[in-house]
Structure formats: structure tokens, C-alpha cells
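Before the break, one more example. Copy the sequence into your notebook; we will annotate it together after we see the structure.
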Amino acid sequence: MLQHGDLAPDIQLFDEHGEGVALHGLLDRPVVLFFYPKDNTPGCTMEACGFRDNYEAFLTAGAAVIGVSSDDERSHARFRSKHNLPFRLLTDRGSAARRAFGVPNTWGVLPGRATFVIGRDGRILSAFNSQFMPEAHVTNALAALKADRTS
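Here is what the structure looks like once it is written out:
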């Protein structure tokens, strides 16, 4: 898994509207990129809603929040609408982005859960991996943004 100081790959994904998104095109500000296993599962819903509930804190820190899973655009659109998610959800077809960031699978089969905070220079400020503590992804990302602002 990529770590602090590594250069984030310039992944190309699609959002819930089928619009192409290049990661490096979003780096006019820090980006919180969270990989999650599946839309509408309990842990993933908890995580996404945690990012939603703290969204103003991320905006105040000057960061964009983006969720990534292998679910298709339709699933993302429903998930985003159902839970009033104010951030983009990107589709990782074939798990290419997950592999590029080195997100490990859980038990070798379940897509992993990892969050990366990426600075404007494209370098990773923070990497956090925990399948079973979805809420911790939000607090770790906010802490990384706060630490970056004070350094």
C-alpha cells in the first residue's frame, strides 16, 4: 500500500454520472480519497455517512472528499441519493485504482478499505487501512489535514 510521501498515481475513473475524472486534475486542493468495498453495506454506509456528517470540516480544511468502489455508476447514484452524500463517488472498474494504490484485500478476497489524504503536490500525506473500523477513516483523514496545515 502506498504510504506517506509516495506520489499518488494519476488514476482515471468515472463518477456516478459517467463523467470521467482524473485524480491529478483535482489537486488544486488536498484530496481525501477513500476506497470502500461496496455501496449500501453496513460498514460502507457508516463510513460514507461519517464523511458526509463531517463534510463541513473537510471543506473548512480546504479538502475535497471522494469515495471509490467497484460498484457501477447506477449503484453509486442510488447510494449517493439515498444517504445525501455531498461528495463524488467514483467507479473503479476492474480494481485498477485499488491496485495502483496498493489497497490490500481483506482475507485475500474482500476489497479492502483504505483512505489516502493527498496533497496539492500529488504526494500522499496520510494512508490509513482498516476494514473493521470504518469510522476511524474519517477521524484519521481530518487529523492528517490538520497536521498538514500546521506544518
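The chain is about 35% helix and 20% strand. The first helix runs from residue 42 to 53. Try to locate both features in your own notes.
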